[in-house]
Amino acid sequence: MRYGYFDDENREYVITTPRTPLPWINYLGSEDFFSLVSNTAGGYSFYRDAKLLRLTRYRYNSAPADGEGHRFYIRDGACVWNPGWQPVRTELDSYRCRHGLGYTVIEGAKNGIEAKQEMFVPLGDACEVIRLTLHNAGAEPRALQLFSYVEFCLWNAVDDSTNFQRNYSTGEVEVEGGAIYHKTEYRERRSHYAVFGVNRTPDGFDTSRDAFLGPYRGPAGPLAVERGTCTGSIAHGWAPVGVHQLNVTLAPGERRSFIFVLGYVENPPREKWAAPGVVEKSRARAMLARYAADTQVDAALAALAAYWNGLLARFSLRSGDEKLDRMVNIWHQYQCMVTFNMSRSASYYESGTGRGMGFRDSCQDLLGFVHLVPGRARQRILDIAATQFADGSSYHQYQPLTKKGNLDVGSGFNDDPLWLIACVSAYLRETGDRSILYEEVPFDCREEDTAPLMEHLRRSLGFTASHKGPHGLPLIGRADWNDCLNLNCFSSEPGESFQTTGPSEGPVAESVFIAGMFVKYGGEYADICAWEGLSQEARAVRAQVDEMTAAILGPGWDGAWFRRAYDANGRPVGSAECAEGKIYIEPQGMCVMAGVGLSDGRALQALESVRRHLDTEYGILLLQPAYTQYHLELGEISSYPPGYKENAGIFCHNNPWISCAECAAGRGGRAFEVYRRTCPAYLEEISEIHRTEPYVYSQMIAGRDAAAFGEAKNSWLTGTAAWTFVNISQYILGIQPTLDGLRIAPCIPAAMPGFTVTRTYRGAVYEIAVDNAAGVEKGVKCITADGAPCVDGILPAAPAGTTVHVKVTMG
Fold it and tell me: Glycosyl hydrolase 94 catalytic domain: from which residue to which, for each copy (predicted)?
């Protein structure tokens, strides 16, 4: 069942009913200011950090859902309605929501009045612009009242939702014409405030939530709207809000627009104002003036469109499969940019109050966006590396505002260090920018302890190489990629109850998955060493990689697939010896991607085991059989019911690893089959089952052991975005950046006749036409660049500003 449709020409998803299975959202913002907005205009806004600088409130588990947001009420006599249906939920005569690249437009109509609510965050400004246009489509004049409504958060979202004994006494506002200033905390150590303004003098206002809504009422029925007049309230403590009342008379056929701006303003702390607590408003006035006219709003929207046009032009595909093309050309890359901005910090599932930016998460996300914004990717790498410890380990998360490690979570996730090598390698292969390796970067954000980035990479590899267990495999620490696989427990005798080893999580449990990472990214680090002329170090690292490969093929091999790990008692996890959790997806993907077992047939055997044991119609399961009882020795993974999340759910994040592994094995048909199963554009017809947005990936889908098999959760902010783009662009389509140039090595279904890709690489544009008239899955017969043969399969970087025409014949 569909709830809308793709509009590829305008690069939008158009939602045709407000009653989607879950709120379907979009992200507004590309730099510092962000708003999340749903198809009914729900959502929230923040500046840089969703925890510490939250402008508006959001109640994540409220009922009815998605109650807070960017609200407008239209009072037409006794009829009150919202353009986006929520929160009044008056039935509309027509409705649609268009989620585009950095903007959302919601259109609703009732009784001959049409309302269009356009929302976006302009480039280079810390605000959200909302243009509300009313149109009288009837033959008689109409007298209406328009009410805006936002509920301010008292900045720290955690404190705002818990510390009521203080917060009910701190709310402060000022009103000046059409501008409402939320200045809570401004009188103390702060220098920031929020402004919510409209481009005309309102006919009324409210800043007290109690006054606007009325006692024992909610946003679905504000008393002031019902009465048709605001009270002019000034909030003193309690809950400050921003409400404008605009009385509107429209002649037949007349349209009139009203421009609202929700902005964040920060004054330099050194500035002193005459009266403590009184807001200095010049910056806010200038911000409001920048969007006071329709021409200014139109110009800002045009600049936003040009920004996205420029980004998405860097990689575009024409394959003849419209679903594949729309994902590659629009939604894959758009989601990669959103996850670049957010990591996992703020969504409708991540509340923005805890995790901040993940070390592992941000490193993986970079793989998907480095070709879009290489300059910003460079800075992100340096920010991530600065949270590393001197021994090569790292904080698992850091706060986006301070860029310092998250002490509440700490460290001990032993896959983290290798992801730093992965993202730096991706950056170097994309840009050729050697200089980053010699940037001085602090350890643990301490400027007195710094080293070149190359040394950070060296210590990342060294941490894994020096932390091995009894089988010669890397120690898992608190966990590896699977945060819920916590294996460092102990018992004195087999079969006795297990006890955790405390905060340190113990030293002995091992990860075959990290071993696969070491082979893959250790090999890439050796390539970097050789590229930099460090031939002796490159040889030493390759020897370590060979040693780790042998460990994987020895104690890491179970006979038909790669084992997952060894627990604290030295017992295998993800083995035929286990009653439950016999096979896991992660090592099958990572080890084969790394090339382990390709020469002796074990890689294909592992992939066939995945097909036999883990395949479902909605994607590949994380493990099988599901855990039906709690296993203390395995940690959190078995605390989930069977089929959900890590306990045999379908993790969309690591499904691409299997597709990439199939490409490494040369099986393009199977690789594309795996890709399609979790790709949103191919799932649109089952939206009533899938439930989350059909234009972006979700973190997980309930597995076949679950009651809700096929239901997705945790959409938008997931490493799936980056890995699926890497999978389709570099493995299946085979356009691979290397340290020395662009390699073309497609691995596609035999029935795919070919495709063309336009790819910007190091400032040059490559027009690549692939011909598969031979009907093969893998193999390149010849490559020409501007008519000249390419003998080694790698296209050297062309001069910036030039265009290279490449023809590839498979066979």
Answer: 307-734
The Cα 730–Cα 435 span in angstroms is 25
User: CA dist 611 to 189, 570, 601, 670, 671, Å?
Assistant: 59, 28, 16, 10, 12
Report which of 728, 800, 709 is spatially closest to residue 761, judged by C-alpha positions.
800
Whether 639 has a pLDDT exceeding 60, the answer reads yes
CB burial readout 73-83, b (16+ within 10 A) else e: bbbeeeebbbb
Contact 413, 396 (CB under 8 A): yes
Contact by Cβ (8 Å): 549, 578: no
Distance CA 198, CA 131 (A): 9
- Return d(Cα 807, Cα 165) in angstroms, integer: 69
* DSSP 3-state of 36: strand
Return the bridge partners of 413, or none. 477, 479
284 vs 282: CA distance, rounded Å: 5
Please name the amino acid found at residue 417: P
Rounded distance, CA 646 to CA 665, Å? 27
Distance CA 102, CA 104 (A): 7
136 forms beta bridges with: 113
Burial pattern 698-723, b for ≥16 Cβ within 10 A else e, equals: bbbbbbbbbeebbbbbbbbbbbbbbb
Cα–Cα distance measured from residue 686 to residue 232, given in angstroms and rounded to the nearest whole number:
49
Q: Give me the architecture of the 4-164+200-259+293-305 domain, per CATH.
A: Distorted Sandwich (2.70)
Single-letter amino acid code for the residue at 572:
P
Of 707, 712, 733, give the one whose Cα is nearest residue 619.
712
Residue 483 falls in the annotated catalytic set: yes
Strand order in the sheet with 788-789: 315-318, 754-761, 764-771, 803-810, 780-785, 788-789
Residues of the chain with CATH 2.60.420.10: 735-810
Domain with CATH 2.70.98.40 in the chain: 4-164+200-259+293-305
Q: Which of 310-324, 505-519, 537-551 has the lowest mean pLDDT?
A: 505-519
pLDDT of residue 400: 80
R_g of the chain computed on alpha carbons = 28
Cis peptide before 474 (omega within 30 of 0): no
Greatest CA separation for the chain:
86
Q: What DSSP element (H or E) covers 182? A: strand 179-182
Beta bridge partners of 615: 620
Helix (H) or strand (E) holding 207: strand 204-208
Tens of pLDDT, residues 196-216: 999 999 999 999 999 999 999
Report the percent of the chain where pLDDT is more than 70: 96
Cβ–Cβ under 8 Å, residues 198 and 178: yes
How would DSSP label each residue in 210-231?
Answer: HHHH-TT--TTS-HHHHHT---
At 623, which helix (H) or strand (E)? strand 623-624
Name the DSSP letter for residue 408.
T
CB 620 within 8 A of CB 674: yes
pLDDT band at 638 (very low <50, low <70, confident <90, very high): very high
User: What's the DSSP call for residue 344?
Assistant: T
Q: Which of 76, 325, 383, 483 is catalytic?
A: 483
Helices (H) and strands (E) in the chain, counts: 20, 44
The region, left, alpha or beta by phi > 0 then psi within -120 to 50, assigned to residue 7 is beta
Integer Cα distance of 178 and 146 in angstroms: 14
Of residues 614, 514, 523, 509, the one with CA closest to residue 560: 614
pLDDT tens digits, 721-767: 999 999 999 999 999 999 999 999 999 999 999 999 999 999 999 99
Contact between residue 84 and residue 77 where contact means Cβ atoms under 8 Å apart: no
Is pTM, for the whole model, over 0.85?
yes
Q: Regarding predicted confidence, which is higher, 61 or 440?
A: 440
